[in-house]
Amino acid sequence: MPFPAPSERQARLIWQALTGLALALLVALIVVLIWALGRVLGILTPVLWPIAVAGVLAYLLDPVVDFFERRRIPRARAIVCVYLLALLMVVAMFGSVVPQIVSESRQLISRLPAYTTQLQAKLERWAAHPPQAFKGLWHVPAASAPAGASAVDAQTNQPSAASPSNTGSNAPSGDSLVSGSIDRDTLQSAGSLLAENLPRVGSWLFGQVGRVASWFGVLAGLALIPVYTFYFLLEKRGISSRWTDYLPVSDPDAKRELIFILNSVNNYLIAFFRGQVMVAICDGVLYAIGFLIIGLPYAILIGATAVFLTMIPFLGAIVICVTALVISVVQFGDVLHPLLVLGVFAVVQSLEGLVISPKIMGDRVGLHPVTIIIAVMAGTTLLGGLLGGLLAIPLTAALRVLMFRYVWKGRANPVG
User: Fold this and answer.
1) Where are the chain's structural domains?
2) DSSP one-letter code for 335
3) Is the pTM here over 0.70, yes or no?
4) CA atoms 56, 57, 58, 63: torsion sign
5) By the 8 A CB rule, do 273 and 60 touch?
6) Side-chain half-sphere of 267: how many Cα atoms within 13 Å?
7) How many whole angstroms separate alpha carbon 258 and alpha carbon 250?
8) pLDDT tens-digit profile of 268-292?
9) Any alpha helices (H) in 165-251, and if so which ranges?
10) For the chain, which has fewer Cβ within 10 Å, the N-terminal or C-terminal residue?
11) What is the rounded CA–CA span in Å between residue 230 and residue 149?
């Protein structure tokens, strides 16, 4: 007997259940893909991170190479000229800035325990004796000690009569000292001790070998970065003109759509890496100059750190500001220097928003700062490590292009 056809309400419920099941399967598939990608990145990190860094450097150096090439210098020689300029800049930095950074880092590390103690003491003093403007916000109870406790302690500070005497029968007997033979129990305990410690010694040795191998891999990756960057820059035109031939798509319309999406993602990456890195360098220089002017210790170190931290919008600037405030409070202990730090922070942020970013970015639209923060944090959490955060940016750019292309705006023009 055939089943009766479902009613309209039953059919709607069935389709909703199937839709929910399909969405759940799609989410599970995405989770599995992210997990598998994280595992693959964990295995291939020594191979992939030099390529990723070389790609970023190629993005940054390509305009300089094009500038030399427009002066009728062959591209290979232009790349060599850029490398020589970069080498001169690195040598100049190692001769001037890097020793100062190393010296300030050592001083900060050596003084960090004292700074922590001073900061804790200041906070306790402010909590016990708040400033006049904050006295009404909290009430500090007066500490009271039990009356007569110190007098009783002073009077009873006498040695106890019931203390055990050291001149008793606890002296070792002469027989135990004379005995010098090695019995079977001693050999067994020595053997068990050796058996227990051999695996630890072996694991320690293997750990040291693994550490040396990891350092060798890091050094090899660092040595390969200039090689990868050179060939990325040298083969730019070949890659730009022929990369579409290697797309595994035969349908012309689908291939054209894929080319449009990849070009849009590439333009977003150019806008991010070239723009954000240059803005971060300008911010670091301005922070260092401003903190030097107000006499803040470790100004060069804070500026160099700002170059890397301010690549992540908002978060990096907040970390730099809080660090400078803590150092000014601990070092000077007044109100003027923290206010000067806030003034430097406000000036740098104003220059970045009104002058630096418009001049460097122009009218190019990159990734939104909040999008960059979420992408970096999600990439480092899900994909693991710095490489995951770095690869999360192109993945986010690709997702943004897809959403604008097919969900939000229908057909969007590529950036740039």
Assistant:
1) 253-416
2) S
3) no
4) positive
5) yes
6) 15
7) 11
8) 777 777 777 888 889 999 999 999 9
9) 174-178, 184-234, 236-242
10) N
11) 78
